[in-house]
Amino acid sequence: MPAEITMPQLSDTMTEGTLVKWLKKEGDSVKANEVIVEIETDKATMEYEAPEAGVIALIAAKAGEKVAVGGLIAVIATKGEDAAAVKKLTASVALSNSSAGKSEASGPKSKVAPVSAGSARGESDASQAVTDDSGESSSYEDAASGEMHEPTGVAGHGATRSAPQAVPPVRHGASGNGDTSERVRVSPLARRIAAEKGIELSRLRGSGPNGRIVRDDVLKYKEPAPMAAARGGDKKRAPLAVPAISPGEKQVVAMTKMRTAIAAALQRSKQQIPHFYETIHIDVEDVSTLRRHLNISLERLGMRLSVADFINKAIAMSLIAHPALNARFNSEKGEVVRYGDVNLGMAVAIPDGLIVPVLRGAQAMGLKELRTRSQDLIDRARAQRLKKDEQTEGTFTVSSLGTFGISEFSAIINPPEVGILAIGSAEPRAVVRSGQIVARTMLTATLSCDHRVVDGATAAEFLRTFKGVLEEPGMLLD
Questions:
Q1: Which of 268, 351, 355 is nearest to 43 (CA)?
Q2: Are 99 and 7 a contacting pair, CB within 8 Å?
């Protein structure tokens, strides 16, 4: 039987997706789990894989179009089926694609009627593999990160497909013969990546529909040698850099899907969750010393631990000791679910939004594995290659602004989680030890809790455990 591919719900808040770029065309053969299309959601642009092997019989939505969750986007003629016959049979289905979409969380594919062409026969459903794209992962020393609160629970599926998404035009410089400037079409993701890398869009040639610049065009671009040399070979990125605005001018910035979802989630969180905050100051002098000693040996293996790895390990250990914080609250059911595994969300700032990669099973990882897994998340996040389960089902979130020199701040809870820990910078401060004022490396952490399910004493006990682990760093070694 033909495999009908519908628009999946790739995030909790997704009601529709935009087809950014088809990597296959009608008549092309595809393998199971082969990437066939890029889809833009309210969080990121993701690659979508074919659920079954066969031939693309019908592409029901063109690149640039928006399709409601559950709406038809393509049909695959499976083994033994005639692609032309499948297309003829399902063409009428494509015409109804603008109707309200379904709200299945995973966008399951269904089957169209059997085609009486040759030996067409039904085959069992294959699960859909979805790769989810996102932004950078956080590191308190090695990568700038910012506060992030994952949007959840936006109701209202059934949006209809609209015309191709309008993309703010970018103009090349005017030519010397007086011709008007040429418009450059560019996807939002490509624009963001180009801004991060400092690449002028006018230097790129788009491979998308109507010459639209897409992500791959930016990632594959190589600067001419003189330009690279002028940059001094510095590969460090400035992810939050924004263009300057000239005096007397103003800039109007339209809200992206991601920013709109974040705004709604933050507003709900602050309005509906009774936050309370507790702050503690932690001496991380010994942790910093231990890190330097360990890195002398680890550098031979091409690895360096960051302070973030020690902090994440301490958080995981503390959450296991205090499961009331390693939990998710379902207010509708009136129940709290506590977890034996720590799925640690790491809040990350990206140029036009925020995102939370999730480090699953963090409590079972040693420092080296935490470093390796975190670095893997960072690398794939920057390449827009995170999977869906690496951004969902977090049980607790940590957010850091330490790399920005922020000593202390309070974060907003990422529902349905019940707590988030805000980490400030580790810095030398004057403290009293044995009646003497001495300089020690200190760090301030502020815990935000949902007072509906977490009490002040419970939060204080968690922070006391967290402080104790970091101030006795030998406890972090295994």
A1: 355
A2: no
Q: Who's near 253: CB < 8 A, 6+ residues apart?
A: none
Question: Among residues 149, 275, 322, 451, which one is catalytic?
Answer: 451
Strands 29-30 and 130-131: unpaired
322 catalytic residue (yes or no): no
Structure tokens belonging to residue 310: 């020690």
Mean per-residue pLDDT, 213-220: 81
The owner of tokens 């949902």 is: 450
Residue 408, amino acid: E
Q: Are 20 and 38 in contact (CB under 8 A)?
A: yes
CA–CA dist 137, 154 (Å, integer): 24
Please name which of 441, 416, 303, 451 lies closest in space to residue 370, comparing C-alpha atoms. Answer: 303
Q: What is the mean pLDDT of residues 308-314?
A: 96
CA 475/CA 221 separation, integer angstroms: 46
User: Which amino acid belongs to residue 296?
Assistant: I
CB 270 within 8 A of CB 412: yes
Whole-number Å distance between alpha carbons of 46 and 215: 11
Q: Considering only the C-alpha atoms of the chain, give the largest distance between any 2 of them, rounded to a whole number of Å.
A: 90
Taking the C-alpha atoms of residue 333 and residue 388, their distance in angstroms, rounded to an integer, is: 25
How close are the terminal C-alpha atoms of the chain, in Å?
A: 53
Nearby residues of 142 by Cβ (< 8 Å), 6 or more positions away: 304, 306, 308
Give residue 472's pLDDT. 95
The CA distances from residue 22 to 51, 54, 387, in Å, are: 15, 16, 19
Predicted local distance difference test score (pLDDT) of residue 158: 30
On the question of a cis peptide bond just before residue 209, with omega within 30 degrees of 0, the verdict is no
**Crossing angle of helices 307-321 and 285-298, rounded to 10°:** 120
Q: How buried is 31 (Cβ within 10 angstroms: 0-12 exposed, 13-18 middle, 19+ buried)? A: exposed
Cα angle value 245/250/251 (rounded, 5°): 80
**pTM of the entire structure?**
0.63
